[in-house]
Design a protein that fits this description.
This protein is α+β, with helices and mostly antiparallel strands. The protein contains nine helices and seven strands. Helix content is about 35%, strand content about 15%. Keywords: Signal.
Amino acid sequence: MSTIKNRFVATVATTGLLAAGLATTAPAQAAEAKGGGTSLAEVLAADGNKFDRTGKDFDVLDRVVRVVLKKKPGSTVGVLADPSFEATAFLPNDFAFKKLTRHLVGGKAARTERRAAKALIKNVDVDTLETVLLYHVVPGEPLDSGAVAKADGVALTTAQGGDVTVHVNGKNGAITLQDQDPDAKDPRVVAVDINKGNKQIGHAVNRVLRPIDL
């Protein structure tokens, strides 16, 4: 196990406890959900839960979410399958997860989506995967692209318990998200308003948000 991965797992084991309050209610809400529109989990699985060569979609994310929920059926990640639960999620695309494998597993970035998913699931424990996923979810009234664009400098509190700070470029309007790793490039929003009109809305990002300083 790499030194970076050791630090990541050890720190996440502690910070993951911050989501405990949400975890006591979210699985029950997901189980009782009736109607309420379309959940983000449905959107992620829309192409049939299969890997392809389109790096801008969310096949790896979908697979990681499924693995976490299979191993931990009561996980707070289940809110993503509850269309009545209001939330905004920053969704790492497949390119983002390929980049992450280079830092967590070591070596070069995974060349395919299948290899990226396999590397993460094999080398990162389920509690860590769960915590990383929760760091991408902001509970509360969904924020569409207009609201996010007006949130320059605002720290959004995630379901994991940590904050993600929004930065908006005044010249070109590009939106980046500052996570807890100051040495890594900040993820950039590359697609917006996924599932707009429902209680859960997503914005695609080109890197995985990091809840700790690696």
